[in-house]
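Take a look at the protein record below and flag anything odd:
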Amino acid sequence: MSRRIAFFDFDGTITNKDTLLEMIRYHAGSTRYWLGFALNSPFLVAFRLGLLGNQQAKEIMLRYFFGRMPADAFAVVCRRFAEEKIPAMIRPKALQEIQKLQAAGAEVVIVSASPEDWIRPWSEALGLCLMATRLETKAGQLTGRISGNNCHGEEKVRRIREGYNLADYNEIYCYGDTKGDKPMLSLATFSFYQPFR
């Protein structure tokens, strides 16, 4: 019997927007959102120029907007964001593809560089597995740092191989939309780049 598994990037592949940016705007409001990005613009320019790594740039923004936020309050905001905002960002064709794969008996896994906290409520409601960036907490507060590595690029491959023995599957489907997804796409027997645009 064929065993199938499918790995989906989330932001830009399943969604039509970057959920990290939308979550920041949802939590902070538009004024603080734009102020925060203006104040941190030198770091964002350094990232665009390749002088600052993806994880470093992300942690700067996470610290600014979420550092020292109580973890339980953050969880509440994430659940509300997942319920109120994420459904409108989902690409209909992506959802149809997920449902088609599930109907064919495939395991479906989201592999995302965005924090797991606001993706998990949505993914669990659909019966999907999730591998995503984890945020560090200390003494019940977010530090603004990432726990371990940002789930991006080769880290997506590492997480997949850690969680699944791909040799057990006859068919491996991978879906992504940026160069950061290309290492994951290389694992596939069927790969799809920007398939739902």
User: Anything to note?
Assistant: DSSP finds ten helices and six strands in the chain. The mean pLDDT is 96. The longest strand covers residues 129-138. The beta strands are 4-8, 107-115, 129-138, 141-147, 171-176, 190-193.
